[in-house]
Amino acid sequence: MTSPSTLLAPAFDDVTRSEASLRRFLHGLPGVDQVGAEARAAALGTRSIKTSAKEFALDLAIRMVDLTTLEGQDTPGKVRALAAKAMRPDPADPSCPQVAAVCVYPDMVATARRTLGDSGVHVAAVATAFPSGRAALDIKLADTRDAVEAGAHEIDMVIDRGAFLAGHYLQVFEEIVAVREACRREDGESAHLKVIFETGELQTYDNVRRASWLAMMAGAHFIKTSTGKVQPAATLPVTLVMLEAVRDFREQTGTMVGVKPAGGIRTAKDAIKYLVMVNEVTGPDWLDPDWFRFGASTLLNDLLMQRTKMRTGRYSGPDYFTLD
Protein backbone atom coordinates (compact mmCIF):
# COMPACT_ATOMS: atom_id res chain seq x y z
CA MET A 1 0.00 0.00 0.00
CA THR A 2 1.33 3.44 -0.91
CA SER A 3 2.78 5.56 1.88
CA PRO A 4 1.54 9.17 2.01
CA SER A 5 4.90 10.27 3.37
CA THR A 6 6.60 9.33 0.11
CA LEU A 7 4.18 11.41 -1.94
CA LEU A 8 3.17 14.40 0.11
CA ALA A 9 6.22 15.81 1.87
CA PRO A 10 6.20 19.10 -0.10
CA ALA A 11 2.42 19.46 0.11
CA PHE A 12 2.37 18.92 3.88
CA ASP A 13 4.70 21.84 4.47
CA ASP A 14 2.37 24.08 2.47
CA VAL A 15 -0.82 23.27 4.39
CA THR A 16 -2.29 26.32 6.08
CA ARG A 17 -5.35 26.63 8.23
CA SER A 18 -7.84 27.26 5.47
CA GLU A 19 -10.66 25.11 4.17
CA ALA A 20 -9.19 25.01 0.67
CA SER A 21 -5.70 23.96 1.72
CA LEU A 22 -6.98 21.29 4.10
CA ARG A 23 -9.26 19.92 1.40
CA ARG A 24 -6.41 19.81 -1.15
CA PHE A 25 -4.14 18.04 1.30
CA LEU A 26 -6.66 15.51 2.63
CA HIS A 27 -8.06 14.65 -0.79
CA GLY A 28 -4.52 14.40 -2.12
CA LEU A 29 -3.74 11.53 0.24
CA PRO A 30 -3.38 8.24 -1.63
CA GLY A 31 -6.59 6.23 -1.67
CA VAL A 32 -6.75 3.14 0.50
CA ASP A 33 -6.85 -0.15 -1.40
CA GLN A 34 -9.83 -1.72 0.37
CA VAL A 35 -9.12 -5.25 -0.81
CA GLY A 36 -5.43 -4.92 0.02
CA ALA A 37 -6.06 -3.48 3.49
CA GLU A 38 -8.55 -6.18 4.38
CA ALA A 39 -6.33 -8.94 3.01
CA ARG A 40 -3.29 -7.72 4.94
CA ALA A 41 -5.29 -7.36 8.16
CA ALA A 42 -6.65 -10.88 7.71
CA ALA A 43 -3.16 -12.28 7.08
CA LEU A 44 -1.72 -10.61 10.16
CA GLY A 45 -4.65 -11.94 12.17
CA THR A 46 -3.65 -15.53 11.41
CA ARG A 47 -0.27 -15.29 13.11
CA SER A 48 0.08 -16.97 16.47
CA ILE A 49 2.53 -16.60 19.32
CA LYS A 50 3.38 -19.19 21.96
CA THR A 51 4.75 -19.70 25.48
CA SER A 52 6.86 -16.83 26.85
CA ALA A 53 5.95 -14.51 23.97
CA LYS A 54 2.27 -15.10 24.69
CA GLU A 55 2.79 -14.46 28.41
CA PHE A 56 4.48 -11.17 27.56
CA ALA A 57 1.69 -10.24 25.14
CA LEU A 58 -1.04 -10.94 27.71
CA ASP A 59 0.64 -8.76 30.33
CA LEU A 60 1.28 -6.03 27.77
CA ALA A 61 -2.36 -6.09 26.65
CA ILE A 62 -3.51 -5.75 30.28
CA ARG A 63 -1.23 -2.73 30.71
CA MET A 64 -2.79 -1.20 27.57
CA VAL A 65 -6.43 -1.47 28.68
CA ASP A 66 -8.52 1.64 29.29
CA LEU A 67 -11.07 -0.03 31.58
CA THR A 68 -14.31 1.62 30.63
CA THR A 69 -17.79 2.24 31.96
CA LEU A 70 -19.92 4.69 29.99
CA GLU A 71 -23.52 3.97 30.91
CA GLY A 72 -26.36 6.13 32.13
CA GLN A 73 -26.67 3.82 35.13
CA ASP A 74 -23.08 4.38 36.32
CA THR A 75 -22.91 5.09 40.05
CA PRO A 76 -20.04 6.20 42.31
CA GLY A 77 -19.97 2.68 43.74
CA LYS A 78 -19.56 1.12 40.30
CA VAL A 79 -16.77 3.53 39.42
CA ARG A 80 -14.97 2.84 42.71
CA ALA A 81 -15.20 -0.90 42.07
CA LEU A 82 -13.88 -0.47 38.54
CA ALA A 83 -11.00 1.67 39.78
CA ALA A 84 -10.12 -0.97 42.39
CA LYS A 85 -10.07 -3.60 39.67
CA ALA A 86 -7.89 -1.37 37.50
CA MET A 87 -5.26 -1.25 40.25
CA ARG A 88 -5.43 -4.96 41.14
CA PRO A 89 -6.98 -6.82 38.19
CA ASP A 90 -6.30 -10.19 39.80
CA PRO A 91 -6.40 -9.85 43.61
CA ALA A 92 -5.03 -13.39 43.96
CA ASP A 93 -1.91 -12.57 41.96
CA PRO A 94 0.05 -9.43 42.94
CA SER A 95 2.33 -9.90 39.91
CA CYS A 96 -0.54 -9.08 37.55
CA PRO A 97 0.04 -5.62 36.08
CA GLN A 98 -2.43 -2.80 36.49
CA VAL A 99 -4.28 -1.31 33.53
CA ALA A 100 -3.45 1.99 31.83
CA ALA A 101 -6.54 4.01 32.70
CA VAL A 102 -10.14 4.07 33.85
CA CYS A 103 -12.44 5.79 31.35
CA VAL A 104 -15.61 7.44 32.68
CA TYR A 105 -18.01 10.29 32.10
CA PRO A 106 -16.80 13.71 33.35
CA ASP A 107 -19.07 13.71 36.42
CA MET A 108 -17.35 10.52 37.64
CA VAL A 109 -13.79 11.80 37.26
CA ALA A 110 -13.45 13.02 40.85
CA THR A 111 -14.67 9.67 42.21
CA ALA A 112 -12.19 7.77 40.05
CA ARG A 113 -9.31 10.09 41.03
CA ARG A 114 -10.00 9.70 44.75
CA THR A 115 -10.09 5.91 44.44
CA LEU A 116 -6.99 5.61 42.26
CA GLY A 117 -4.91 8.04 44.28
CA ASP A 118 -1.23 7.89 43.31
CA SER A 119 -1.48 4.34 41.90
CA GLY A 120 -0.29 5.45 38.47
CA VAL A 121 -3.54 4.39 36.79
CA HIS A 122 -4.80 7.36 34.78
CA VAL A 123 -8.31 8.74 34.62
CA ALA A 124 -9.67 9.29 31.11
CA ALA A 125 -12.88 11.24 30.60
CA VAL A 126 -15.07 11.27 27.52
CA ALA A 127 -16.07 14.81 26.65
CA THR A 128 -17.34 17.12 23.89
CA ALA A 129 -20.95 15.89 23.89
CA PHE A 130 -19.99 12.21 23.83
CA PRO A 131 -21.01 10.10 21.94
CA SER A 132 -22.65 12.24 19.23
CA GLY A 133 -20.33 15.23 19.22
CA ARG A 134 -23.34 17.38 18.32
CA ALA A 135 -23.19 20.46 20.51
CA ALA A 136 -22.04 24.07 20.33
CA LEU A 137 -18.29 24.55 20.71
CA ASP A 138 -18.60 26.48 23.98
CA ILE A 139 -20.49 23.53 25.49
CA LYS A 140 -17.83 21.10 24.30
CA LEU A 141 -15.07 23.24 25.76
CA ALA A 142 -16.89 23.61 29.08
CA ASP A 143 -17.36 19.83 29.17
CA THR A 144 -13.63 19.39 28.64
CA ARG A 145 -12.56 21.99 31.21
CA ASP A 146 -14.87 20.47 33.84
CA ALA A 147 -13.26 17.05 33.35
CA VAL A 148 -9.72 18.46 33.45
CA GLU A 149 -10.44 20.52 36.57
CA ALA A 150 -11.87 17.41 38.25
CA GLY A 151 -8.52 15.68 37.67
CA ALA A 152 -8.72 13.86 34.33
CA HIS A 153 -5.31 12.92 32.96
CA GLU A 154 -6.73 12.21 29.50
CA ILE A 155 -9.66 13.53 27.46
CA ASP A 156 -11.37 11.37 24.83
CA MET A 157 -13.19 13.80 22.51
CA VAL A 158 -15.47 12.97 19.60
CA ILE A 159 -15.37 14.76 16.29
CA ASP A 160 -18.53 16.08 14.66
CA ARG A 161 -18.93 13.37 12.02
CA GLY A 162 -21.63 15.33 10.24
CA ALA A 163 -19.26 18.25 9.75
CA PHE A 164 -16.47 15.95 8.59
CA LEU A 165 -18.65 14.07 6.11
CA ALA A 166 -19.97 17.37 4.76
CA GLY A 167 -16.39 18.39 4.02
CA HIS A 168 -16.19 21.08 6.71
CA TYR A 169 -12.63 20.07 7.55
CA LEU A 170 -11.56 23.41 8.96
CA GLN A 171 -14.41 23.34 11.48
CA VAL A 172 -13.33 19.90 12.71
CA PHE A 173 -9.66 20.95 12.73
CA GLU A 174 -10.33 24.09 14.76
CA GLU A 175 -12.51 22.22 17.26
CA ILE A 176 -9.68 19.77 17.92
CA VAL A 177 -7.23 22.66 18.37
CA ALA A 178 -9.64 24.39 20.78
CA VAL A 179 -10.28 21.22 22.81
CA ARG A 180 -6.56 20.57 23.09
CA GLU A 181 -6.14 24.09 24.47
CA ALA A 182 -8.98 23.44 26.94
CA CYS A 183 -7.02 20.40 28.16
CA ARG A 184 -4.40 22.76 29.62
CA ARG A 185 -4.42 23.05 33.42
CA GLU A 186 -3.68 26.13 35.47
CA ASP A 187 -0.28 24.69 36.43
CA GLY A 188 0.71 24.61 32.77
CA GLU A 189 0.44 20.83 32.44
CA SER A 190 -2.00 19.40 29.92
CA ALA A 191 -4.28 16.39 29.80
CA HIS A 192 -3.56 14.20 26.81
CA LEU A 193 -6.13 14.39 24.04
CA LYS A 194 -7.53 11.33 22.28
CA VAL A 195 -9.64 12.11 19.22
CA ILE A 196 -12.47 9.66 18.44
CA PHE A 197 -13.58 9.30 14.81
CA GLU A 198 -16.50 6.85 15.15
CA THR A 199 -15.14 4.95 12.16
CA GLY A 200 -18.38 3.01 11.73
CA GLU A 201 -19.96 6.27 10.57
CA LEU A 202 -17.10 7.44 8.33
CA GLN A 203 -18.15 4.93 5.65
CA THR A 204 -14.80 4.48 3.82
CA TYR A 205 -11.18 3.73 4.62
CA ASP A 206 -10.24 6.87 2.70
CA ASN A 207 -12.25 8.89 5.21
CA VAL A 208 -10.52 7.10 8.08
CA ARG A 209 -7.14 8.05 6.63
CA ARG A 210 -8.25 11.67 6.11
CA ALA A 211 -9.64 11.92 9.64
CA SER A 212 -6.40 10.48 11.02
CA TRP A 213 -4.24 13.06 9.29
CA LEU A 214 -6.62 15.90 10.15
CA ALA A 215 -6.58 15.02 13.86
CA MET A 216 -2.81 14.59 13.98
CA MET A 217 -2.22 17.90 12.21
CA ALA A 218 -4.52 19.55 14.78
CA GLY A 219 -2.46 18.19 17.67
CA ALA A 220 -4.09 14.94 18.82
CA HIS A 221 -1.97 12.86 21.17
CA PHE A 222 -3.98 9.73 20.23
CA ILE A 223 -6.40 8.82 17.49
CA LYS A 224 -9.22 6.47 18.49
CA THR A 225 -11.58 4.39 16.40
CA SER A 226 -14.91 4.47 18.17
CA THR A 227 -17.15 5.40 21.07
CA GLY A 228 -18.30 1.80 21.45
CA LYS A 229 -21.87 3.00 20.88
CA VAL A 230 -21.97 2.46 17.08
CA GLN A 231 -21.36 -0.71 15.09
CA PRO A 232 -19.07 -1.60 13.48
CA ALA A 233 -16.64 -0.26 16.06
CA ALA A 234 -12.95 -1.23 16.04
CA THR A 235 -11.88 -3.56 13.26
CA LEU A 236 -8.46 -4.80 12.19
CA PRO A 237 -8.56 -3.14 8.73
CA VAL A 238 -9.61 0.24 10.16
CA THR A 239 -6.88 0.02 12.79
CA LEU A 240 -4.39 -0.92 10.07
CA VAL A 241 -5.22 2.29 8.18
CA MET A 242 -4.79 4.35 11.35
CA LEU A 243 -1.49 2.67 12.22
CA GLU A 244 -0.18 3.42 8.74
CA ALA A 245 -1.20 7.03 9.25
CA VAL A 246 0.68 7.46 12.55
CA ARG A 247 3.72 5.70 11.08
CA ASP A 248 3.76 8.02 8.07
CA PHE A 249 3.08 11.08 10.22
CA ARG A 250 6.16 10.35 12.31
CA GLU A 251 8.26 9.80 9.19
CA GLN A 252 7.19 13.21 7.95
CA THR A 253 7.12 15.27 11.15
CA GLY A 254 9.14 13.38 13.76
CA THR A 255 6.07 13.34 16.05
CA MET A 256 4.60 10.13 17.45
CA VAL A 257 0.84 9.82 17.88
CA GLY A 258 -0.87 6.94 19.68
CA VAL A 259 -3.69 4.72 18.46
CA LYS A 260 -6.65 3.36 20.45
CA PRO A 261 -9.05 0.82 18.97
CA ALA A 262 -12.21 0.70 21.06
CA GLY A 263 -15.44 -1.25 20.96
CA GLY A 264 -15.95 -4.93 20.20
CA ILE A 265 -12.51 -6.21 21.30
CA ARG A 266 -13.52 -8.88 23.79
CA THR A 267 -10.97 -11.72 23.78
CA ALA A 268 -7.28 -12.17 24.42
CA LYS A 269 -7.00 -13.74 20.98
CA ASP A 270 -8.38 -10.56 19.42
CA ALA A 271 -6.05 -8.35 21.47
CA ILE A 272 -3.00 -10.33 20.39
CA LYS A 273 -4.01 -9.89 16.74
CA TYR A 274 -3.88 -6.14 17.28
CA LEU A 275 -0.48 -6.35 18.98
CA VAL A 276 0.92 -8.35 16.07
CA MET A 277 -0.41 -5.70 13.69
CA VAL A 278 1.16 -2.89 15.72
CA ASN A 279 4.53 -4.61 15.64
CA GLU A 280 4.35 -5.27 11.90
CA VAL A 281 2.96 -1.91 10.76
CA THR A 282 4.44 0.71 13.08
CA GLY A 283 7.19 -1.25 14.80
CA PRO A 284 7.97 -1.92 18.46
CA ASP A 285 8.03 1.76 19.48
CA TRP A 286 4.24 1.63 19.60
CA LEU A 287 4.15 -1.52 21.75
CA ASP A 288 3.78 0.57 24.87
CA PRO A 289 0.73 1.87 26.79
CA ASP A 290 1.92 5.41 26.07
CA TRP A 291 1.29 4.78 22.36
CA PHE A 292 -1.31 2.03 22.06
CA ARG A 293 -4.45 1.36 24.11
CA PHE A 294 -7.50 -0.86 24.06
CA GLY A 295 -10.82 0.76 24.94
CA ALA A 296 -12.65 -2.12 26.58
CA SER A 297 -14.85 -3.32 29.39
CA THR A 298 -15.10 -7.11 28.92
CA LEU A 299 -11.66 -7.68 27.39
CA LEU A 300 -9.82 -7.57 30.71
CA ASN A 301 -11.56 -10.64 32.13
CA ASP A 302 -10.60 -12.80 29.16
CA LEU A 303 -7.00 -11.58 29.38
CA LEU A 304 -6.98 -12.56 33.06
CA MET A 305 -8.48 -15.98 32.31
CA GLN A 306 -5.86 -16.68 29.65
CA ARG A 307 -3.09 -15.42 31.94
CA THR A 308 -4.23 -17.79 34.70
CA LYS A 309 -4.32 -20.65 32.21
CA MET A 310 -0.71 -19.92 31.18
CA ARG A 311 0.40 -19.91 34.83
CA THR A 312 -1.60 -22.82 36.25
CA GLY A 313 -2.42 -24.99 33.27
CA ARG A 314 -6.16 -24.71 33.83
CA TYR A 315 -8.90 -22.20 33.14
CA SER A 316 -10.71 -20.32 35.85
CA GLY A 317 -14.44 -19.97 35.40
CA PRO A 318 -15.68 -16.73 33.84
CA ASP A 319 -17.08 -15.72 37.23
CA TYR A 320 -13.71 -16.09 38.95
CA PHE A 321 -13.00 -12.44 38.19
CA THR A 322 -15.37 -9.58 38.91
CA LEU A 323 -17.93 -8.86 36.23
CA ASP A 324 -17.93 -5.30 34.92
From TrEMBL:
Signal peptide: none annotated. The keyword Lyase applies. Keywords: Lyase, Schiff base. Its EC number is 4.1.2.4. It catalyses: 2-deoxy-D-ribose 5-phosphate = D-glyceraldehyde 3-phosphate + acetaldehyde. The keyword Ribonucleoprotein does not apply. InterPro entries: Aldolase_TIM, DeoC, DeoC/FbaB/LacD_aldolase. Pathway: Carbohydrate degradation; 2-deoxy-D-ribose 1-phosphate degradation; D-glyceraldehyde 3-phosphate and acetaldehyde from 2-deoxy-alpha-D-ribose 1-phosphate: step 2/2. It comes from the Bacteria. Gene3D superfamilies: Aldolase class I. Belongs to the DeoC/FbaB aldolase family. DeoC type 2 subfamily. NCBIfam families: deoC. This is Deoxyribose-phosphate aldolase. It comes from Nocardioides aquiterrae. The lineage of its organism: Bacteria, Bacillati, Actinomycetota, Actinomycetes, Propionibacteriales. The gene is deoC.
